[in-house]
Every structure is written in structure tokens, then in C-alpha cells.
Amino acid sequence: MPSTPTTLNDWLTMLESRHPKTIDMGLERVAAVGRSLGLHFECPVITVGGTNGKGSTCAMLESMLMQGGYHVGLYTSPHLLHFNERARIDGVMVDDAAFCASFEAVEAACGGVSLSYFEFTTLAILKMFSDAGLDAVILEVGLGGRLDAVNIIDADVAIVTSVDIDHTEYLGDTREKIGFEKAGIFRAGRTAICSDPMPPASLVAHAAAIGADLWLFGKDFNYSGDKQQWNYGGRSQRRNALAYPSLRGANQLLNASAALAALESLRIRLPLGAQEVRTGLVLLDLPGRFQVLPGRPTVILDVGHNPHAAATLAQNLDNMGFHPYTYAVFGAMADKDIAGVLAQLKGRIDHWCLTDLPPPRGATAEAIRALLLQSGVTPGIGSDAESTITCFESPEKAFLNAISRAGENDRIAVFGSFLTVAGVMAAKKSVLH
User: Fold this and answer.
1) 248 lies in the same domain as 342
2) Residues forming beta bridges with residue 355, ordered by sequence position
3) Measured between alpha carbons, how far is 47 from 155 in angstroms, rounded to an integer?
4) pLDDT for res 1
5) Domain boundaries, position 125
6) d(CA 392, CA 417)
7) Between these two residues, 243 and 206, which has the higher pLDDT value?
8) Within a domain: 433
9) Is 148 left (phi over 0), alpha (psi -120 to 50) or beta?
């Protein structure tokens, strides 16, 4: 390397092009560099994996622990607008200077070992957290679990939120195969939580085989509620009269109950009072998870990008009030089950505004249009047609078109990829009032 980068953008540009593979499964290289860095956590560490619901569960844990006065580090990925979103300490994004210093430490520890962008940046964030004297660390698993870079850390509590079909080229093409990969974050003798109501047998068997203390939804923890409040019940702790999480959506009580199960298992080391839990659930904020923006027409941002997430989005749309027309701003990665996503939502969308996403992984709007036509969606003819499909070269242009056509009582659902939502978020300030 001719010179060490001096800015965060320069570091990220270099890391994006240096390693031959974007995704390089395996822990040998990243674990070796981790040992050189001397990563060590005295505080409890919670890892959160799963097909969907990881980000929401992490945000709930962070918010509740912060309300308890704890010094909390949170690592999530990917980011929406700024790389710094991936690392927060006490709810505040880590600044560029701290990232650069940590990148330099990882570079010095590599000793010729080649790391992918994700591996390198994960180690840098773990290094920051290791040095920060935190009371609790929350780590979102990037992909799978068993071979994800986050899994070099032996977590005190490991959560698997849900198991469904995604990333099949890396994790397998069945829930049983994927469940085994997700269960790889469990540890012998430590708490393992699964909030999927129908956990794969492979996940349960792996937990038993290694001697993890497995908490299953419906058996070891549960929730109940009415329109005003809800209750959590665990192995030895109940929390009653809880406020609903500020995150909207059908599965948020599942995510909240998994977070509370994790906190129950850590109640000796990280005690939390009832009011701290209630306030933490009310005050949390997580962009892009069935996020309904203020104003008219109604705009919904949702990063859901697989059939399981699309089914949840469909349910959430059904639970909203009446809207004459629903527009979709949709773009997806070509390696996703796009047909499966469209199947969940095609009956709920009147006007499709499809967008290209960047190559090589992004699908083209025309390719998505072909899948919609194959699925039986038949657009009308003329500007006043009840159903339309239009293609655009960017999320911004697709969104501008939807905004220009939608009536004030209509709604626009933006979904399909983090990149789709991020493109609209970057553009919306100049569009929405």
C-alpha cells in the first residue's frame, strides 16, 4: 500500500477494492487478526442473528439499556446513508477520527492477512468497543452466524430472531440448513434465545448438542396483550403493563419479547427497572423498519428484501387505514427471491414504480417488470389506468414519479433493499414538506 488513508472515505474506498471477495465466509483469518488486536470484553455481550428482525431487536436492547444508565455499544449493518451508522456508543454514531484510528490499529495487526471489507470494518468496531470500557455490547450478525465475522466473539447471550429463506448461495436453500448456520452463534453453557415461533429442528438440535441454555418462544418466554398495553412472561420474570414499542409492525412484540428474554437472563449483571423498560420501548427509533413518514401522501419506508419480510410488510399494509391507491417504489438485488417478494405484495399494489439498483448485484427495473408480468400483474393503458408498471434508473426518480402521481389520500410503499430505501431517504428532504 503506497500510503495509509487519512480520511474515512479513503479508508472505505481502499477496503472496497482490496480483497478479492465481497463476501468471504470463514473465521480463520478474521479470528487471527482479532487475537493480534487483543479483543477482550469484561462486560456482557449480546449477539443478534436471524433472517429478519435483527435491527429492531438490537435497537430495543440498546434503548432499554441506555434508559437504565448503562454505557452501551451497538454494531449494526448495513448502513442506510452514512457508514458511521454501523457503530454507536450511547446512541451516538462514532465519528470519522475514531474510525480512522481503529482502522489503523487493524491494519497494523493484519500482518499480511487479507480481510474483506466487512471483516476489516467489523474488527475495527470490535476494537473500538473493546477499548471503550462499556457496560454492555450488542452485535448484529451480518450474514448467517456460524461463519460471520461477528462470531469470533463468545457472546453471553445469543438471539436468533427468525429463520427463513435468504442468502441461499451461502447458507443453504432450506430452513433446516439456514437454522443450523444461524445457531452457530450459540455457545455452550450460555443463554441461547430463539423467538421464531416455529424454530427449525436443526437449531434446537445444535443448541442441545453443544449444551447451550436454549430459551424458546412459547415455552420459556411469551407475550400477551390488548390494544392498550402488553405483558412479557419469562422463566422467572414478568413485566406487565408495558407500552407498545414505538416501532410499528406485526412482529415487533416478538422482537421485544426476545430482547426482554435476553435482559432477563442478564438481570443480575444488568438489572433494569420497570420504568426503564417502558421508556426504552417508547423512545427507540430505527429508520426503514415500516417507518411511516409524516405528511401526505403517506410514505412507508421498509428495508424488507425477502419473502418473509414481504409477508410482514403486506400484513402491516393491511392493518393500515383505507387508501384509494397504493404506489410501490421497488428495487431489489438480483440474487434475492424477487418473485417470492412480489408474490406477497402484488395484490396490494396498484402502481409499480420500479428502479434499477447498481451493478453487479442490483437487478434492473426491466427484469423486475418481466417478473411482475409473469406473476399475472396486468397494467392498464393510458395515464388514468387503474394499474401501471413504470421503470426508472434510480430510486430517487422512481419516488419523484410516485409523489407526482399520488393523491394526498394515497400511500407510497418504498421497499425491496436497503439501497432502495437509502436512495429515497437521501432524496426526500427536497421532495417532502
Assistant:
1) no
2) 392
3) 6
4) 46
5) 8-283
6) 15
7) 206
8) no
9) beta
The arithmetic mean of pLDDT across residues 323-339, rounded, is: 95
Regarding whether 315 and 260 lie in a shared domain, the answer is: no
pLDDT digits (tens, 9 = 90+) for 142-173: 888 899 999 999 999 999 999 987 766 767 77
Supply the mean pLDDT for the chain.
Answer: 93
Q: Which grid coordinates are listed for 354?
A: 420500479
Has residue 264 been placed in a domain?
Answer: yes
Half-sphere exposure of 223 (CA within 13 A, CB side): 23
The predicted-structure confidence for 369-422, as pLDDT tens digits, reads as follows 999 999 999 888 766 788 999 999 999 999 999 999 999 999 999 999 999 999
CA distance 150 to 75: 10
Question: Is the same domain home to 117 and 138?
Answer: yes
Judge if 74 and 219 occupy the same domain: yes
